[in-house]
Design a protein that fits this description.
275 residues; alpha+beta; Zincin-like; 2 domains; 11 helices; 39% helix; elongated; binds zinc ion
Amino acid sequence: MRQLSFVFADPPSAAAAPPVEAASPAENVEPHAASLFRLARVRDPAFERRVAELFIAAAHERRARQIQRAKVSFRPFRSTLYSFRIAADGQAMLRFHIAFRLAGEAVITQACHLMLARTRRAKAGVERGAYDAFIAGLPPQVFRLPGVRRPSPRARSGPGRFRSLDESFDRINRSYFEGQLARPKLCWSPKRSRRILGSYTPEDDRLIVSRVFDAEHVPLFVLDYLMYHELLHKYLGIGRRQDGKRCMHGARFRALEKRFDRFEEAQAFLEAQRF
Ligand SMILES: [Zn+2]
């Protein structure tokens, strides 16, 4: 059967994937996000028919006369939000990311118009406020939305064997940020990495400290220095140079970093790598 194919951001791997639902979300996902995810896994044939109606209505509005019927399914896509295809007999096959099971009719209608707008110019004219707000409001790690890097699943929050990240955060927040900084997710790295000592990712507000610091013989002030360094990244955000390039350790960062009480000593310890 010849098919007219209009596929949007739908790589072959996703198209070929069997229609199985995703595994349960990462364990350190907030309860609210987890319950949304569970909800989105439940099939609702009446909703599927309603979405098909909305698509046909949008197609008529756009005078896409070749489209006669629509069939809708929801998939746990990894890299696409939706795709559709029109068979020569006028049947449209729509596939939405499972997150759209939580969407209202305005969101669905706008998504249908985005699918049906063929040219860049037509797309630019589509009303998409509800659609954009819906996507922006989804917990991205739970739904594996396109363009979102999943955090390392093995980095764990929770107490270390010898050191507490929570207590380190409290000390630094009190001493250097007047207690004003909101606590990020604090995790020990899965491995005792000596290459990457710490990291902070603003996307998921997550601060990871290498497990090499969870040791009795590493002085507490060295752990605190690392905590301070990573919290400065949270505090300052991603710096940009004049040419727009990312700059993580600019002049302001360096100046603030030197305010750490035992800055020189901590640096010396890290350089000697006496872990
Ligand atoms: Zn840094």
